[in-house]
Design a protein that fits this description.
- With 257 residues, the protein is α/β, with parallel strands linked by helices.
- The chain has two domains: 6-44 and 184-255, HAD superfamily/HAD-like (Rossmann fold, 3-Layer(aba) Sandwich), CATH 3.40.50.1000; 84-181, HAD superfamily/HAD-like (Rossmann fold, 3-Layer(aba) Sandwich).
- The protein is built from nine helices and 15 strands.
- A six-stranded parallel β-sheet has the order 5-4-1-13-14-15, sandwiched between helices. The protein has a five-stranded parallel β-sheet with strand order 7-6-8-9-12, sandwiched between helices. Strands 2-3 form a two-stranded antiparallel ribbon.
- Helix 3 runs parallel beside helix 4 (95-103) and helix 5 (128-139) packs across helix 6 (164-174).
- The chain starts with 5 loop residues before the first strand and ends in an 8-residue tail after the last strand.
- The structure holds magnesium ion.
- The site of magnesium ion (MG) has 8 residues, from loops.
Length: 257
Amino acid sequence: MRKYKGYIFDMDGVLYRGDTLIPGAVETLEALRRRGSRLVFVSNNSTRSREDYAERIAELGLPIAEEEIIPATYATARYLAERHAEARVFVVGALGLIKELLEAGLRLVAEPERADILVTGSDPAINYQKLSQATALLLAGKPWVTTNLDRLHPAEDRIIPGAGAVVGALQYVTRRAPDVVVGKPSGHIVEQALSKLGLAREECLIVGDIIESDILAGKNAGIDTALVLTGVVGREEVERSEIKPDYVLESITELGE
Ligand SMILES: [Mg+2]
């Protein structure tokens, strides 16, 4: 595993779980940096902005800079700024997503009639009115970009619905699927990570704890993959899965040895 020059890390389940650091995570990141490795941190979380993440990372004491973090909120804002910079955007999503879209210079509108494009993510304040507005946009044939399709997210002491709750509701009523998924396992967020690293894909390793998002993202992008068992997946699940990671690690610390 020492052959890799760049690492694309998932965060939750790899570096920490809830508010608890995975033992050895800090030392491993430091060891990789001493070795000259380039690191980037990619998360499908669609409620936190980059700035929100940086605060959390600082609280946990992880040696990670804000510029090294690519949450799905930021990745979605970048995707739109690069391809639909002039579009008027209607958002069903959390404050962290709205912050990133505004920071990228996008125009957000509150009235669906004025919107050119729909953007969805996890929304703790989802309600019937927002669903109705988004439905109108989709039935009018407007493009639909979503941060990700995640069904569930681990919270502190429970499991909560992810962006898939919003996507699923809209998909069911409109019989449309999102036109673009930015987060894992889609390639968009991974391409942003690669361009940040400035390395060829063969020189990089994706490290994550979920097979159908992290590992599949690596497979889709042609990047080697390592699954860590400190998150939600156990060894039995790896054996049952048709998607096989290149490496299975007890924890991130095996990368620093
Ligand atoms: Mg994870």
